[in-house]
Amino acid sequence: MQEKMKIRHAVALLxxxxxxxxxxxxxxxxxxxxxCQCFSATTVICSDPLMKAMPVDIPVQTTALIVLxxxxxxxxxxxxxxxxxxxxxxxxxxxxxxxxxxxxLTSLEELEISGSHLLALEAETFNKLDxxxxxxxxNNKITLLAPSIFDSLEKLETLQLRGNVxxxxxxxxxxxxxxxxxxxxxxNKLSTICTSKLRKLKKLDLGLNQxxxxxxxxxxxxxxxxxxxxxxxxxxxxxxxxxSQLNNLEELNLRDNKITALNAGLFPSNLKKLTLRGNSLxxxxxxxxxxxxxxxxxxxxxxxxxxxxxxxxxxLSSLEHLDLSENALQELASTVFRGLLQISVIDLxxxxxxSLEADLFTDQGRMSRLSLARNRLxxxxxxxxxxxxFECLLRLGGNPWRCDCDLTYFHEWLYYNSNTVExxxxxxxxxxxxxxxxxxxxxNKEQLVxxxxxxSETQCTINLATDSDRQCSLxxxxxxxxxxxxxxxxxxxxxxxxxxQADGRTFDYTLSQPxxxxxxxxxxxxxxxx
Length: 530
Ligand SMILES: *[C@@H]1O[C@H](CO)[C@@H](O)[C@H](O)[C@H]1NC(C)=O
Ligand SMILES: *[C@@H]1O[C@H](CO)[C@@H](O)[C@H](O)[C@H]1NC(C)=O
Ligand SMILES: *[C@@H]1O[C@H](CO)[C@@H](O)[C@H](O)[C@H]1NC(C)=O
Ligand SMILES: *[C@@H]1O[C@H](CO)[C@@H](O)[C@H](O)[C@H]1NC(C)=O
Ligand SMILES: *[C@@H]1O[C@H](CO)[C@@H](O)[C@H](O)[C@H]1NC(C)=O
Ligand SMILES: *[C@@H]1O[C@H](CO)[C@@H](O)[C@H](O)[C@H]1NC(C)=O
Ligand SMILES: *[C@@H]1O[C@H](CO)[C@@H](O)[C@H](O)[C@H]1NC(C)=O
Ligand SMILES: *[C@@H]1O[C@H](CO)[C@@H](O)[C@H](O)[C@H]1NC(C)=O
Hints:
Blueprint: H1 2-19, E1 36-39, E2 43-46, E3 64-68, E4 74-75, E5 86-90, E6 96-97, E7 110-114, E8 134-136, E9 158-160, E10 182-184, E11 203-205, E12 227-229, E13 251-253, E14 273-275, E15 297-299, E16 321-323, E17 345-347, E18 369-371, E19 393-395, E20 401-402, H2 408-417, E21 429-431, E22 459-464, E23 472-477, E24 480-486, E25 494-500, E26 506-512, E27 519-522, E28 525-529
Bound molecules: 2-acetamido-2-deoxy-beta-D-glucopyranose (NAG) (8 copies).
One 2-acetamido-2-deoxy-beta-D-glucopyranose binds at residues 432-433, 451-452.
């Protein structure tokens, strides 16, 4: 234990020394308090566990005083430190702050007491600190704050109280903080909040509290809000209209709540980042994100979505990053990503997709990342990746690839593009059984055959588009199906062939000139080999 403390202390000191690399230890070190270090003539750092009380001989010209991992339990500051602008206490066993501790510090701009055991502060603690712009009281054990404790801090711009045990805040607590821009109350036990007087507030973090409901006017007094975090609460429903005044809001974090549905038009139109990860969304209305022309990041991961309206992302013309991973998506409309011309990342991993449409990614020429990993894909349609940027990195592993004749497109694509697949070693066959576990890249094209597609299991229908009463016949030889039709001539012939297999799978071929390798037409006889 003792050893550990020493090591930690040494590491901390090392960090500080690096931090102050350019500072030369003061020559007048005789004036440096014992157990402290003085860098330059104005910066004093005390970081010794043996120091049990605050020194009383801190040089009067000191502008920055930092007490780190010391043994100090009670904060008192000697008089005459009128030039002190920065005072920081980090990781000290501080329990009490003398009510007049900061009384003479008329120049103080930044005060931090974090990582201590503070339970309470007296109402007059911050009186007269009228130059203070930054007050950080993170990771203490504060349970209650007197309603008037911040009343003199009219210049305050940043207030952080994260990691305490606040259960409620008096409604007048912040009412004099006219200049507050950043308020961080994350990791407390708050269930309600009143910030109605904070007209300049830009950043508000209420994450990791116990909020279940927010009333309509909660943020109506904070028109400048740019970043709002409500993550890790227990919100089940977003009150319609609650964000409608927030015309400057750019980032909204609603991660890890219990939201089940979203009304249309909930989100303000300038939003750039919206995080809904880890909620209970089952379905979305097609108008859920209407009008969010500036949205660049949308995170819908870890919800319960099994389908998406085809128009859901319509008009999100700035979208760059779309995370749909860890849902239960079973299929995607071929047009769902249409118009997302700026998109560079789409994450669809850990869904329940069994097939994809060939034209799903037609507008996604500039992608840099696409994950289809850990779905239930057995194959990919011909041409699905043709328009993707060749530098796009893909993840495709963890799908039950069926290595038969239908996989030839993907197999060939993989041959030329294997360097863009990040999880190549995870791309292996699940079926047919002889190839289970075989890496797709080690398969030969000739091995990708449909072995059991014999006539006995296959029903074939042929439509002759040009000449419907022609007779065709089927023959099987060595697992190869030959369709023969007697024709007057081979030109202008169009064949539609449907195979229905015993296992329910169907294959659909449309054949016309120019003939592919599998079709020969000679002397009025067309032969199709499958
Ligand atoms: C405090 O700062 C002022 C202005 O920089 C300077 O004139 C004065 O000498 C400083 N006081 C002390 C005690 O160093
Ligand atoms: C510090 O505060 C606690 C509780 O607020 C009190 O019990 C204790 O006596 C105080 N200690 C000092 C040194 O003032
Ligand atoms: C609030 O503090 C937490 C914990 O350090 C941090 O992760 C978060 O980004 C802060 N919030 C804002 C809005 O800066
Ligand atoms: C989106 O961003 C542009 C430029 O950053 C801005 O002019 C516009 O007002 C923003 N809002 C909407 C709704 O387009
Ligand atoms: C997208 O924009 C068009 C044209 O402004 C509009 O008609 C359509 O309703 C919008 N769709 C959605 C889902 O917002
Ligand atoms: C995946 O889809 C199948 C039906 O195709 C369904 O039975 C199964 O529950 C789905 N799995 C998940 C995790 O939603
Ligand atoms: C193919 O058919 C044979 C019998 O005709 C059967 O024994 C074999 O299991 C089948 N293989 C597959 C992959 O279905
Ligand atoms: C096509 O028919 C002509 C005349 O009946 C015959 O001479 C020719 O050998 C046939 N070609 C083939 C490839 O069967």
